[in-house]
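S.,

Sequence below, as promised.
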Amino acid sequence: MSANTKTSRKVARYAVPVAVAGVAAATVAMVPAFANAGGPDLPKVTAQQLIEKIAASDVQELSGTAKISTDLGLPKIAGGLLGGSGVAAGSAAPEDKIAQLANGTHTFRVAADGPDRQKLTFLDGKDEYSLIHNGDDVWGYASQSNEVFHEKNAGAGGHEKTGRRLDASPQQLAEEVLKAAGPTTEVGVGDTAQVAGRDAYQLVLKPKQAGSTVGSVQIAVDAKNGVPLRVQLLSSQGGKPIVDAGFTKVDFTKPSADTFTFTPPKGAKVTEGADGDDKGKGADKEFKALEAFPGLDALTGGAHGKGEVKVLGEGWSTVAQINTGAGKSLKDLEADKNAPKEAKQFLDSLGGKVSGKFGEGRIFSTRLVNALITDDGKVYVGAVTKDQLVKTADSAR
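The prediction came back faster than expected:
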């Protein structure tokens, strides 16, 4: 592995949505399964050999088109937030645009030239949005509003805490999944495939534990150069993939230098990002979506909540227990005749009430992540089924 590759993996990044980045929670136990027939006729490889092929890949230059489809099964009100209704129209802030990847289908052009130059251009609709990392600078440009976001990349040169890298490509998704997988994971090789016109092996990761919402993660790996070309996250309940991210076209030649050059257009509104450490630290980020609803800040404890987090279980069954330090309970909000309608609508979207040794609460449910919000101000969240979540909350009492 080259020094540049090692450096790029140390750089802190703009993550894809939380649910995607935290797919598997422990390391890999190899299963020497072999590739099956059904796709291109390729030499047989073991899972160990395929992972080594990915690790040995030194491809740092590419360009192409990729597509990501996400079907989390979100309630309408929450899906609206992630799908864009909760994001300012035409916003140039990178966090706003990346958050939208958590819902629906999105197409973008991608280009990379080593760890210091990457570019993503979203192609949703006629209005384009570009996110560019070029050396010390990170730029975001929204053509619809003619707004520009600029931030000095304090992490350029290897400062892990503050550096920015644009991680929405299948390569980075696969890297996050493999980095998180472990002894609670069964790893094998599935059918061969063709992705973006290239022959590929498929690495298949499956939970050994019961109770996960994840059925498997399938990573299509370029047979020649070891680059992950597609990542699919499949539900344990079947149906279409929860996440399907992959190249539709890819070229491994060096992009031209001007690909990463950006100058704010005349008349554009330029917003400078904050320098230094990420201001969104701690458990406050976990409750940002809730606090977007008037009246729910009391449930989460707002910016002054305790935010104490305890990890329960391991591997695919990991659940985070979060003590919000809330000033109110769900029951208080339900009984409050003066509570804003948005808060009541959110409660209605959470689904049915549940009870157990932990007390009473409601479960916010998606196809991937379930969250139990209890009446006494605790939140239990994980990529586990509702039954597993309640069982874990009971055992934590």
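Residues 283-395 form one domain.

Coffee later?
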